[in-house]
Amino acid sequence: MDIDAWVWWLIGAVGLGIPLVLTAMPEFGMFAVGAVVASAVAALGGGIVAQVLVFVLVSVALIAVVRPIAAGHRAGQAGHASGIDALKGRQAVVLERVSAHEGRIKLAGEVWSARTLDSDQVFEPGSQVDVVDIDGATAVVM
Question: For residue 97, which of 2, 60, 70, 86 sits 20 to 30 Å off, Cα-Cα?
Answer without folding.
Answer: 86
